[in-house]
Amino acid sequence: MSKQKFGSAGVTAREIDLTGPTTQEPVGIPAGIIGTALNGPAFVPVTVGNLSDWTAKFGETDGKKFGPLAVREWLRNAQAVTYLRVLGTGDGKKRTDSGDVTGAGFTVGEKQPNPDAIDDNDYANLGGPLGRTYFLGCFMSESAGSKVFSEAGIQSSTSAIPIIRGVLMAPSGVIIRMSSSMPGSGLSSGPPSSTLIATEANAEGTHVGHVTLSQNGAAKEEFVLLLNGHKGTSADHPNVLTASFDVTSNNYFSDVLNTDPYKLQLKGHYLYANWDVHPTLAVVTGSGVINTASGSSPQGGFEPAAFLISSSLGRNVGGANVPNYENFRDRFGHAVSPWFISQKLGGKSVELFKLHALDDGAGISTQFKVSIENINKSSDPLNKYGTFDVVLREYSDRDLDKKILPNERFAGVTLDPASDRYIAKVIGDTKAYYDFDRELSSQKLVVEGNYPNRSNYVRVEVHPDIENGFVDPVALPMGFRGVDHLVTSGSSPLALLGTSQVASILSQVTNTSASFLKKSVTPPIPFRSKITTGEEWSVKEQVEKGFYWGVQFEQPETLLKKNGSIVQNVSLKSFAKYFPKFVVGEANFVTGSNAGQATTAELGVVDADLFCNNAFTLENIQVVTGSSGNADPDKWLKAVYVRSGAPTAGGYLSTQIGATDSDKTRPFKVDDLVDNKRFAKFSTIMQGGFNGVNIFDENEAEITNLAVVADMTSGYGRGLNEGPSVSSYLKAIDIMKNTVNVDIQLLAIPGIREPLVSNTAINATEERFDALYIMDIEQQDEDGENIRTDAGLPSVTNTLNTFKDRSLDSSFAAAYFPDVLYRDPIGVNLQVPPSVVVLGALALNDAVGHPWFAPAGFTRGALPQDALEARVKLNQVELDNLYDNSINPLLAYPGAPRSGTNPTSGLVVWGQKTLQLAASALDRVNVRRLLIEIRRQVREIANTIIFEPNREATLARFSAAVTPRLQRIQALAGLERFKVVIDSSTTTQDDILNNTLRGKIFVQPTKSIEFVSLDFVVTNNIQE
Q1: Distance between CA 171 and CA 109 in Å, rounded?
Q2: What pLDDT, in 10s, does the model give residues 201-210?
Q3: Taking burial as the number of CB atoms within 10 A of a residue's CB, which of 9, 123, 863, 877 is the most buried?
Q4: Final residue belonging to a domain, choices 927, 942, 972
Q5: How many structural domains are present in the chain?
Q6: pLDDT at 818 over 50
């Protein structure tokens, strides 16, 4: 028996409530489940009481993930579950000195794990270099009447400017180039040679390609990409791609290029992000850039107006002024809004608050948008704090068809910390997270913040100056800082034009220094310019108070009818997308939250407010005033957002907004809110959110068992013994092992069978001493190989032999076999590991019986109708062999009884052995759960006598409290007999001196019937 160690006296527990309002509080001791999910916080155990609350927090099922299905089965008959979502943690250690996380995320262009081709990309020619990141762009100029670039401060003349339209990533062995048919270009429009091997030398630099601007009088804006090194395996996966920059075209490039990261190698490329520029706002042209004197003006409707640029440095290398565009080696993270800012106070705006998504991971930033409305200036001379509403809306809704998320309107909030409507009190500011950025021995769950989260989606971070009273109380949210933007401009980040392949293009370029592409930037984030319907400045134009200023989520219909469209600008998702900014000591891929950062020749405009004038403020609206001197509420037909009214470091000046006495125009100000607050509202986006995984490999992206196996297999994939996928599960188990923060009765990690993980889980439940691990075992086929897909059929013999070789011995774990064909709620049938349905059987057992009953058989082990059939139909010999070796079978009995209240499929759990090798009462699940339950109840009583005098009266009181509990269990068929000894015979004088109370509880469990032996005697006469 191991010696028990005592620390400081007492009981430590902390409640972490991340569920928000629930319809049902958790009841009973939860099952603990570790798995993946579509949404939710990562590595923070969350307890809920019903399936609807769980779904609200973690999302629906998707036909692939086992954890959500296990939750569904458990909650059929239980009312409490604790779920821990896993995402990518890399090696689970703190960041390196350079800022990245070892093993986390991905590096663009690295060789992908592939069971059939470990060393090379099957779809590329052998011998090619590793892939890299490219920026796809074109020269553009504002359409007639448009100010999309000039107001953004990036076009000051009629000359075209280089606009980045997409971020492309290439796999190993593939180099992406552009085709050009321009005279003297030195480039061919033909496909890459099937035997051409891409080399490091031509992987870098800039490639200029031609754009077919028109054909037969119709606009085309087409370009051609050559996937050098890609085999072009079929018509569906060509190595020559023709696409258009015109968002209205049928072959717009985001529809033609590959947007599925899992097909990176198959397709030879991946479009990670793209930005739309509607032709009503700007068109592709080489005007002022292409040298028309050289005979290279648009001929036959085309000119070299497209480009493809890589970093100015080598692959996966960064510097002080050059981002490493291939480095995505980051752990999971969450989406964040820009800082919401005040009106000008003392000549500049100040930061007030920002919102953080409660859910970790990718995709959350495009689930909802944030609107600020109903802004009220205070009229109370004794309390200058105003109020406003914060509203979370569905990302894809329209201003004229708003869809506010349930319970996500926070009305009448204030920046007054003393008020009951203080924004942090109303929305919540609690941040619960696992702190990975400590030494391993010091990592732990951390809860920060002063107020519980009342939103189901966000928490608020209030600027410290607000908390400390350093900001004028009249401050109100009037806008937001510029969104994070890509660092691609300036003299340093991108490669110069002039590689050997395209050197002759220089003769066609007006700027012979070849540095014009150094001004390449992404388009400005679109803002609504007017809140009217109909054609602008026409007699049919009308004010629409339902429109919000700020980010415009719809594509413009025409230049003069920018608000008439119901088509969503899907490329806004690229503004919201994750790009790395974790590197220390080097330039980052994106930058933001950096008001006042100086513009430099090396990096161009870095300040996110000034970059494309992406900061927004209501004070940039040019309004018409009335007789009162305030904005006229009847003249919003003429109100215009002037984007260029804001470009001053550290604040906003409106010198470029028309402010004249004759026209009665001026910038909007806070005083105008009194009569015009219905017009003063705006929306913005959330940005970021990352899963911390390799997005190009489905198993690694989903953190499946195959990814865990790959991590543990030498020479496979990353070739690590403990890689990022296995580290995620080991860290999750470590968190669930902590009895201080997590109280569970069962532990399951559905679908994860790798021995290292399951062995760690067994050790965790043994260390907890109050939970049973429901284990999924490795499955082997007839050749003795691990089953990789649903197509493989397990061999009972090989699976059993592999399991026996592990020599497991624990009464705190139980194993089950085989998998079950299961109907997912979305209508997909998939093979699920046994732990999914066994959890349901255990919940049924506890609902109709008690934990000390055997969770097996027709009464308490029946599986639901969604469990369609066992993957392997076991014969009697296999059934006996499995049970003899402590594997509990799942099998179907034809004509098995079905309950009307709990319809079953005919599948049942047909065994209840633990993994204990020695034959004793503890080799049965019901007995282990009985002892866990007794221990839990006795511990609960023991907690009430901590710090009481250690004397006989206390011992007697303890004994008297324990006895009724055991009598109840005995009456409910859990115990045959018991004896409680807590007196001076168990607590010696030495124990008293050491502040210790000792006792003994003897129990004789009630055994279940598992074997029935009957002799049928045929006789001529039956004697009474």
Answers
A1: 4
A2: 566 667 777 8
A3: 863
A4: 927
A5: 4
A6: yes
